[in-house]
Automatic annotation (TrEMBL), chains A, B, C, D:
Record carries keyword Metal-binding: yes
Signal peptide stretch: none
Organism: Candidatus Magnetoglobus multicellularis str. Araruama
Protein name per its UniProtKB record: Sirohydrochlorin cobaltochelatase
GO biological process terms, semicolon-separated: anaerobic cobalamin biosynthetic process
Length: 230, 230, 230, 230
């Protein structure tokens, strides 16, 4: 329950950043008719609940950028294969961009829906860089993932605080678990943990596969509890 | 009639070069299972006769490289759009390569079926270069177009000579017309004209939109005829 | 006679401009003799004390990789210009790498000496990527900056703890100030602050231009002090 | 004397193309002060006579583009090494471009002084492409080599005809020898041979290492002579 609420909150943040990136049009003297498109790029998910989030994101993007076609791409090869077996053909970022060339798009704004700028995001950056170097689009830009600039992190903290269910008592701990990665971007979980706790000492951010591990989070919780008892 | 015969001859030459390129496997330490694929890249055509040529090329490639999947891509945007209206979905090189990434190909050999290394071929080179820089394939190579090295030109001359119908008399002129281009590669038509005429003074190579123009070819033919009359 | 003169003349001219094709520089399967080099890349500094650090780093690198030439490059344009006025010619990464091509290096390892993976580091990554795509080196790699993987951060925490002067008392605060940036990598300071304080609650990491600001660090110190007083 | 005349003629052609390329300035929103530079790129030569040609080219370029700094780069590694031993430090294209970044150039026009678009020229193209992809210059362009478009070839033919010494008799053969290459661009010699002979049947273009070989040129000369004798 808590998780779902937070998810929706985070979506609104994503949207803010997307809108912020805007579409700056460079005058290269190309004669093609201008055709702007948006490509939303997610890791992908086989969960039904995620589809609802994706649909909500798309609605919000379309509401803000009305008239601009919105496409989707999925960076997870495993998810794409899994859904292909269920008859859903999902595009990789490479396929999605290649199709947009073919459809005469001249300006493409990609928005990463990843949580941190990890391996998936950096692979996406390399793909976008390669398409940039092909010089087939007049402009192609990629928006940062959720946890990026300090302002982004602050908005995420706000969203987390705002979406904690009201029935939760102040001394009840809330633990948010991210995936975690061996990539340097794993540090964003530490940063988020530090910053969210400045606002509420009983909210913790941990990761399943990276740092801070659940054991560390538990020991931090115990330390807090001890203090509380004193 | 003559044209069809020559076309088939040229195909065999294309094939020779394709086979010649081979598949050199780089050891980058990638752990993906090796999966080799061939991508034949043509300008494309809406003519039915061209489809026969394409099928013949594919047969020959498959005969020589049995077991290796063969894909097609079409560089002409106009042809792709035209055939899409007829319900035939053709891939651009970008889409074809992006799909091959998605299908886990590790080694891709592209063979250009263009006549000369003009704009279409150089655009293709840039596309291949961009996919190379993505580092998603362990190896990606692009074969030269038909008229390239001196050895290539000599084989084309052989094929032209070999495919002139036998009923043609020695003093009858044969004029082969290429498309012609404003690109520097247009010089290959002059080179071919020079070299084919060393073998048979009554065979001429001209172009529709480039140099040598049909007027020049006509004046060369008249000059020959005058000489013959003497 | 005239003919001969012209021939020689043109040959020499042609030769001047063109003899280069004689050099068979095979793109793949390089036949060049292997030559490994290290390029240490720092922001640069006009402080004398920094020169000592640079010299120490170089000593350590040379001790570990004996026999491998070590070069330096400086990413700060301002520092390079400043030192040029003092008669010290420092290379940008682009110039340093271009010179290494010229000196026949085949394998180059760059090590970033930046603190975080910010703008300077990402610009360097783009430069290295471009040289990679030139395919002039057989191998070119770039090491992460100081604060990168979780293991790196832990080592930095260890080093900080180990280098606190012994005369410092446990309840005396230690504040380490980083530069700070608007780039997402600024989050590494929050992460470091969080992790170093897990080891010693009285060590703080702040930044001059980013987050955590000195005001925040001060308020954290005051909070600690209050607690201590209780 | 003759040599000098021809040299100047060729230079003027080079210059025409250089000027033709112009400097198109794109508005990318960069805030750097605009600084335009020219980089002339030659194979290089250790011959003194070539230095005179280089100086003449530079004079002509400076006369047409007054106020724009002109730099030189040399693509031949061997020539660079040879002249380095004589104390002359020549820049490779990579070093020259890297230095121009450092000197705050924003717009760079490179002009290849190569005869044909062979290996050296295509290597240079790759270098220029890599610097383009670095996005350090607002604009970087590379001019075609001497023998490129049909218009270029026609100008070269004009220059050759115009520079044949007047004392040469119509039935005296003139043979121009190029270097020749295994690269597809070798076809430009055939094209030039074909086109120059349309204007004067007694002028021949051959190559030292490619096609047309001197033997072929000799047999063509003999054939002509036979005809003349008849």
């Amino acid at each position: 329950m808590i998780m779902k609420t937070i998810k929706i909150a985070l979506i609104s943040i994503v949207f803010v950043f997307f809108a912020g990136n805007g579409l700056l049009m460079a005058g290269h003297g190309h004669k093609k008719e201008k055709k702007v498109g948006i490509l939303l790029v997610t890791f992908g998910s086989s969960e039904k609940s995620a589809q609802i989030s994706f649909r909500n994101i798309e609605k919000m993007v379309k509401a803000k950028c009305s008239g601009i076609p919105v496409r989707w791409a999925y960076t997870s090869h495993i998810i794409r294969k899994k859904l292909a077996k269920q008859g859903k053909q999902l595009d990789s970022p490479e396929v999605a961009l290649a199709k947009m060339i073919d459809e005469d798009f001249t300006h493409v704004a990609l928005q990463s829906l990843h949580t941190i700028g990890g391996e998936e995001y950096h692979h996406l950056r390399r793909t976008v860089g390669a398409f940039k170097n092909m010089r087939v689009f007049q402009k192609i830009i990629l928006g940062y993932p959720l946890l990026s600039t300090q302002k982004d992190i602050e908005r995420v903290v706000d969203a987390i605080i705002a979406n904690i269910p009201k029935e939760r008592k102040k001394d009840e701990a809330v633990v948010l678990m991210g995936h975690g990665t061996h990539h340097p971007s794993n540090a964003f979980y530490s940063a988020l943990n530090f910053q969210v706790r400045l606002r509420d000492q009983n909210i913790f951010v941990g990761t399943v596969e990276g740092y801070p591990e659940i054991d560390l989070i538990q020991s931090l919780m115990l330390k807090k509890r001890t203090k509380k008892h004193i």
